Amino acid sequence: MGDGMKQITVGIVGGTGYTGVELLRILSRHPNVQVRYLTSRAEAGRAVSEIFPSLRSVSQLHFCDMSDALFDEMAQTCDLVFFATPHGVAMTHAPSLVNSGVKVIDLGADFRLQSLDEFANWYGMTHSCPELLAQAVYGLPEVNREKIAKAALIANPGCYPTTAILGLKPVIDAEKQLGNVVDGRIIIDAKSGISGAGRQGKIAISYAEVADNFSAYGVSGHRHTPEIAQGLNEILAAVFPKKIRFVPHLVPMIRGMFSTIHVPLTDTGSKVDWQSYFASSYQHEYFVDVLPSGVLPDTRSVKASNKLRIAIDQQADMLTILVVQDNLVKGAAGQAVQNMNIMFGFDELTALDLVPITP
Amino acid sequence: MGDGMKQITVGIVGGTGYTGVELLRILSRHPNVQVRYLTSRAEAGRAVSEIFPSLRSVSQLHFCDMSDALFDEMAQTCDLVFFATPHGVAMTHAPSLVNSGVKVIDLGADFRLQSLDEFANWYGMTHSCPELLAQAVYGLPEVNREKIAKAALIANPGCYPTTAILGLKPVIDAEKQLGNVVDGRIIIDAKSGISGAGRQGKIAISYAEVADNFSAYGVSGHRHTPEIAQGLNEILAAVFPKKIRFVPHLVPMIRGMFSTIHVPLTDTGSKVDWQSYFASSYQHEYFVDVLPSGVLPDTRSVKASNKLRIAIDQQADMLTILVVQDNLVKGAAGQAVQNMNIMFGFDELTALDLVPITP
Amino acid sequence: MGDGMKQITVGIVGGTGYTGVELLRILSRHPNVQVRYLTSRAEAGRAVSEIFPSLRSVSQLHFCDMSDALFDEMAQTCDLVFFATPHGVAMTHAPSLVNSGVKVIDLGADFRLQSLDEFANWYGMTHSCPELLAQAVYGLPEVNREKIAKAALIANPGCYPTTAILGLKPVIDAEKQLGNVVDGRIIIDAKSGISGAGRQGKIAISYAEVADNFSAYGVSGHRHTPEIAQGLNEILAAVFPKKIRFVPHLVPMIRGMFSTIHVPLTDTGSKVDWQSYFASSYQHEYFVDVLPSGVLPDTRSVKASNKLRIAIDQQADMLTILVVQDNLVKGAAGQAVQNMNIMFGFDELTALDLVPITP
Amino acid sequence: MGDGMKQITVGIVGGTGYTGVELLRILSRHPNVQVRYLTSRAEAGRAVSEIFPSLRSVSQLHFCDMSDALFDEMAQTCDLVFFATPHGVAMTHAPSLVNSGVKVIDLGADFRLQSLDEFANWYGMTHSCPELLAQAVYGLPEVNREKIAKAALIANPGCYPTTAILGLKPVIDAEKQLGNVVDGRIIIDAKSGISGAGRQGKIAISYAEVADNFSAYGVSGHRHTPEIAQGLNEILAAVFPKKIRFVPHLVPMIRGMFSTIHVPLTDTGSKVDWQSYFASSYQHEYFVDVLPSGVLPDTRSVKASNKLRIAIDQQADMLTILVVQDNLVKGAAGQAVQNMNIMFGFDELTALDLVPITP
Q1: Which of C26, C319, D160, D245 has the fewest CB within 10 Å, making it most exposed?
Q2: What does the function comment of this entry state (chains A, B, C, D) (predicted)?
Q3: With respect to CATH, is domain C3-135 assigned 3.40.50.1700?
Q4: ipTM for this model
């Protein structure tokens, strides 16, 4: 029996958020995966299709409570557990799962920042399992594929960092290869659809507040800033001594993320043919699409798919990199499944070859 | 000094909802009104412009807590108090205000239903001041102007009932004048923008839930059904023995209400020239606009204004009445100010001659 | 080699509309279908992925011009041709294709109305091939599955009629079975997302005109009215002597259709347990989902899928039927593929088992 | 009779666009203005309220054709003519009006760029009246108030340049006062609602294309770039030798513009207390509101009003300036009326003290 027939059993902790339902949508069509557990404290006992009628006839699962007994059972029966939870949850439960040989993918933030100080600073709590954190692999396949294949624990990247790191990877490659191509500070001016704020009852994300409206938030500091910096400085480059300025905004749309990255170039940098450089950088990556010169991206072109598209505009001494993705797919659940496919030796595209929805 | 110069002092109880901020928007440009009190339990002490930055440089008010002392003070100093509160609040505080000679306009539901049983049935509480309820005037100026002028307490109509009663008034007039024009049941298929659900943190009205989505609610029973029935049967007609079916829907837009009223006609009814009948019914009403034959309304044409527009489509034995209004203005705060103008002898259009916003 | 392996070659006439791109999205994942031709007068020669970047890496097709030579070639090489064109196009080209043994599915309106007078009246042109019209099968699988399986030419239903006919089928079945269950006129108050108006440059459907706005249209007469009447009176019942009133509205959302059907009941009708009646009517239909009692539908629950969901609310003498579908899928391209699957003996669910997108 | 009673007669050339209808909305409540002419080639003869039902009972005007005779008549009878037209129209007709003593405010682009080469380069036509261009005053009141008061011809600023120039004015003042505060390139990452694209029938701005979508445009070059550069370099500073990078984006909302301006600071620049600097810069400007430290703006807070709000975020060596306005008001029609008020000696706030619409 080939890999294509291998079956794994999966649990999802935190199944009532948008990341959870998106995992269910994708995994319901994955031939190698059976989702057996789906937790929710608030909805324990209810059918998932009661909360998400879109899943009627798709999933027969019921939410179960997040008890110790459940984690024990998952430790015995699961090959993989996804955490689609607020920070603090995964680091509590991951150690015993990993010790039992269960692989873990955390879609939350518990294992993204390697610096304990940065974690404490940005998330307001002390990390409870630094030794496990040290083993965690940052799950950005286009950067870390080999490590992911061997990992026991994956920190699934944040949505903004995915666009920033993949958008800047060729620049940093050039910086390493050619030296000193970037002149000064890189500006990441990012825009996200509102599903990025999660499924929750807050006035600030209610329809009448955010529809027909555009705003900035986290301008003086956002948790994804250190994650982007770590991605650029540590994961991609030994030392990438450039400063970053990251400013996120909220767009009145459901899904979609658009990062406009402004890179001032040195003379060396301005001589690079960036269109070609980017195209060749990603020529073997199915999920990263470098658009032809002159074509600009929109978020709709990736809606409900795992694609991330990049466009390049090069002027005399200024490189503008435009990156789009669906924040819930390549920015969250899709990337998690991509990591899963790599970890278990499935074809990386399995269940992920989703055609974007237009219009 | 003429009426134009008369100044009144006003309090608003419940100032953090959309009806409250809309009252402030309108009253801020009313030459005869000074809003002195604005209450909010949650935001007491904060400037209103902190919560609603749109009111920076418009209102210097701060929220005050809803204490007994405050109500005592308002009883001494106010000419009028608006309640923009959930049901149950106004009926607690209105009696002492009215006894002190302060006029009250309740934008909530406490004084809309004259039947104590219906009130208890639909609002889940016993009415605490039935004797005051008996004095309350239903504040629909185009129907009840003379009573409003003399009222001490106004029940400001619900948004749906405003469209239904004004949309059907000429039909009921014809029923009274000609006899038996309606054949069977009247269907009121209504659609509302999401601000009608109020300013609150609930998953069900969060952007990602309701954007790009259309739904029905309250299909098996909605609180506005008895209010519409009361309006048609008791206020307009001695007896209007026709059944009503009211079904509300939620539209992914901020403001706006659209009621499609389907009226089956008898032979007598089908001989009426309804376009003329409606046009002459409302020819002297500034805030009710009967559109020319063949013109269909949209909610945008009344956005942010106190206008209610009606279009008529007449087929062999079927009359379709299309009614639009801004649910927060003619459906709530604007109508409340219209009632205030009538109660205090101001020109009825004062501060209400708002030009709709297009686009 | 089983049916599962059978391969067919397909052409799509009119590939730049939303129905065309939706056909491509669905067919790109159909294991038995190769789309070889895709026409567009305006975009001839361009890659389809230039117009629809969502199809980059999904389709390598280029638009070809709609010439006689092309139709000759398709007559030789295609098993099936879809027309996703304005009325008048399919009836010009279908006869020679059908004569050559090519099956045709017209997503436009040329073969929907069997009455030549009605066609001329509503579409403003004389039908050019009445003999072919007489052979056309109305492609509503849940009603006409056996005829579809043998058809050479399918009239794919309009979006509104799909909701109205499937929503009312159990009522008409009851009418036939029990006699006289409906008392008077049936009101179909329908609401559509804006993609239903097609992909075109018109002020009336531009964003700033229709966003945050709700309107009615076609109130005095809409082309889908005779199609619904034909569906109810001729296809479903020998004679269904009930009048219909159909009023469509435009909702500020991209996809989605919601029909609220108001059915007054006779005494006989009010004794039927409609929830059970509907549930058993559709228990074997995968794409029609009768919701449990008390659950109300929203359009989001079917977004980008081929599902049509129905909810029932029954009151004393009033039945309310709420129907939702994605107008571009079950209301157009999905239903066309469902018809194709039936015509060619493929599993009816092939490529159509799409999970709705939430949020 | 004081200035308050002075009456002027006004014509509007190009009355069917969003800028035109917004001018009508504002001027309809201006006590000193009578709009007598409103032109439209396409709609000549029709009532303005047929095209814009929001103006029923507000304006009785009919569109008139744009003939020579009309311009002769306006030259005789008007005090002021607004051009709300595509480029090329105003420069054809303004000279004879100005020669007749009629003041002109061009809301289009004909008189914005003082460089004939830049004009030809960006607008694809030779300027037809360079001598008049030389007299044109750039109508940004907060910068040019005294020149505006004396001008015969006003170039009303573009929407993006209004945010960029007012957002950067204090920085340039500091540059002039303190020397060398900006370190390198200023990035203007701007986002506009879709009404900025005008009222026209184009697929690219149709609802189904732009709703739930976010895109960039004009990345490789936009007509407002030279206008911003001119504003910073020539109007504000003798020489402001800093480079600008301007990238505009399209937001799925009707009205609103949000410019995020990223300014890298030198050591000198980082020592400035920018919050105070901005606050004192604009302390006497009613229409420019510098938000308190820590408060971030959203476009809703200025919707349908003439306010422009600015927030400042200062980090070690990076200043972020966030600017919001309603693109149709302070970014177009409102600013034009503000210019008019200054030119004719009316109180600058007349008809412009509009309360933003929330929600």
Answers
A1: D245
A2: Catalyzes the NADPH-dependent reduction of N-acetyl-5-glutamyl phosphate to yield N-acetyl-L-glutamate 5-semialdehyde.
A3: no
A4: 0.96
